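fyi for ur records
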Amino acid sequence: MDLNPIQLMNTIPALMPYVPYVLMALGLCAMLMPWLPPPGNPRSVYGLAYAVMNALAQNYRNSRNAPGDTGTGKPTT
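which gave:
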């Protein structure tokens, strides 16, 4: 049996109207993440919003090997 994603989404009519909005939200998060500075305090409101946007953008360990990145979210000077 050949699995067609469009046919699968058409079998769930309540899902189809929301798919473009979900994809736009994920794309917007992926576009914004490179310009957002990492939070100083991960428990702050900005830190939690940053973590949610990072998860939606699917940026799992995206800059772990970047120069000057210590893994703490704070730049080294």
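Residues 5-56 form one domain. thats all i got for now
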